[in-house]
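Continuing from the previous page of notes. For each protein in this section, the sequence appears first, followed by its structure tokens. Read the first protein now.
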Amino acid sequence: MTTLAARRLLLVHAHPDDESIGTGATMAYYAASGAQVTLVTCTLGEEGEIHVPALAGLAAAEADQLGGYRIAELAAACAALGVTDHRFLGGAGRYRDSGMMGLPTNDQPRAFWQADLDTAAGYLVEVMREVRPQVLVTYDPNGFYGHPDHIQAHRVAMRAAELATAEGFGPDKIYWTAMPKSVLEAGMTAFAESADNPFAGIEQPEDLPFGSPDDQIVARIDGTDQHAAKEAAMRAHATQIPDNSWLYSIAGNFGSEFMGVEYYTLAVGTKGPGAGPYGWEDDLFAGLTPDPAADPAESVAVVGAPSTVPVTPAEAGVR
């Protein structure tokens, strides 16, 4: 890349479809605004369930071709989101989907869960060296909900950020995907009497493997104008998300609010100005100065001043 955009966002996800479900509105929002959005996916998702009966033969226990098929699904999803820069970590097929925690697939030699941390981080550093992201988005230390590949994606992203920072081009801010407990509580209440209740058997948000107190959330990205793009991206992952998925059921009830709003905690960097009772940012680039190396026509104004002490990757728990 010879000319850098003024705003550059890098997202690191474990499998195809994770980007659309967790950060699709954010990606579409920033792509539409002219920011450089780069997606790195760590595996092909070979161990995923298949919800298209005609494609059942692609399964890992059959032809083991699901990963190749999901490359095309991911390409279609990125097109729906307006994202033109997508890479697989180390190249397509370098690392294999590890499957759910505790399964024998965790132990396969190519399983991402078995990847050498510095080797995998080195592949990501090369992407960072090229695109120079100011903002990095990935999962929290538990991989949001405990999947081994999500946990490993967190480790790799944080280690790569540490290495890139040592070389002088690490991201200024690192966010982890999150869900406020207040949003989970609202969903549980809304679906309590529904026959299609995705929270069935859950009595309180604390019973879920994810959910953050509202005062720990730092950013709320309102991409409601992009909710249709996010839904189209999710539908592109047809093998993984069936037409009758509870995700679409919730979307039918809450519409653009569900599809278009995404939340984050801040792991590294300085919190920018925000609003509301918790001062949530409405921009992942809040508080950052325009990049003098970028195209001046694409530069963004700085809004307000930083309000917290910066955190380093090491302080955020990088081993």
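Done with the first. The second protein uses the same format. Note its length before scrolling.
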Amino acid sequence: MGHIFASFIIVLVLTSLCMCARADRVPAQENIPGDSHAQGFSYIAASYVKYLEAAGARVVPIRINRTYEEYVKIFNSINGLLLPGGDVDLQKSEFSRVSKIFYDLAIKANDALDYFPIWGTCQGFQQLTVLTSGKNLLTLTDTKAVALPLAFVPAAQNSRLFKNFPKDLLQSLSEENITSNFHSWSLSVQNYSRNAKLKRFYKVLSTNTDGRREFISTMEAYRYPFYAVQWHPEKSPFEWIDKPGMTHTPSAIKASFYTAIFFVSEAMKNQHQFPNISEEEKALIYNFAPVYKGLGSIFVQNYYFD
């Protein structure tokens, strides 16, 4: 799985006082065991924050161990949610509890024509499959540190996510090893096809294989603005550990920014806002300082939270 602690990144809409960039929310998650830099008990990798900021969003971290009422208030103040990568229990962790609260609120909001997008990366992808199916249907794959091309299915051509990507970028994504995979678990095409809830909810856009099992690498919901990638678009421009699977080619970085711009543009369709400027300023990630962990770390920088 990708690495992330129990905090969400969400796209926030600015107050009506100015027409500026939206902000994204990202949930934190429980700290990785053995992290010598850890402060508090949860974290968010800074690469997810930079990923959203590079596309014109502002980020609000969603802390774990808060009350349901607090999360409802946050939901009504932000414009979208990014579920990051990580390595926590998808059914019993605080990250999973908070994810379910926001997932349920987003379903209810979208059903009421209140457009609210969710993006899941790696662990976030996996968490969305558990929330939708009510089961953990993941399968072990040999995909811990490898860069792959995407095997697009015909539905990708007219998908919301990919339909406006430049043709040369789509060609690069389909022919070059530029999507970073850092996960041990995947949703196999077989398990997806056997689960009626997942098949009704998500449209498969691309698949990959580890040589033995074919798994889903990109998907989007049919009726809801929910998007999920098993790969890591944020790593190419912002993470630098020297491992197989890390790629910094121009096409990989271009793919990162096009996915981020797409998601932020989705968040801009939402009209939630904070009650006032003061509350908005207190919520932003700018109030926290990232901790430099070194170039040998899976994350160059982390934000830590109590």
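What the second structure shows: The first helix runs from residue 46 to 53. Residues 115 and 152 are 27 Å apart (CA to CA). We return to this in next week's lecture.
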